[in-house]
What does this fold into?
Amino acid sequence: MSKRDSPMVAHLLDALEEKGYRDTAPRRAIVQAIAQTEKHFTAEDLRAQLPEVGRATIYRSLKLLLDAGVVCRVLLEDGNLHYQLSHRGHHHHLLCVECGVSEDLTGCDIEDQLKNVAAAHQFQVSGHWLEIYGRCLNCALPAAASL
It folds into this structure.
């Protein structure tokens, strides 16, 4: 198996290398596992999938991928922290509380509101994170039909 066996693996490794991080075998294994994941995942999911990679290495690698902007955090309604590939830079999420599907929300105008709130309170914003919980169309339709 090539070290960059898919375009996504190459993209993730390139993002790390652009930030000055070395391409190590454990990081490569983590990146390959993430690239093959189609939905959100936890650090513990990666641990189960990669028992040969240490917990600290997984968490450090996730932090580096977050900092590189190629992975984002998803906080589920139950408080569990998940991750997923980030294809669009900074964005927010719509999360279905029934089936767990996550949809990226881009074009949100919260940036302007944050600037106003920060200015009003003489506060320097270093970041923000927004998750919107509800029901996706597939889960909402059966509930609406039963009314």
The longest helix spans residues 55-67. The chain has two domains: 1-87, 90-147. Residues 1-87 form a domain with the Arc Repressor Mutant, subunit A fold (CATH 1.10.10.10). The helical segments are 7-18, 25-35, 43-49, 55-67, 110-120, 137-145.
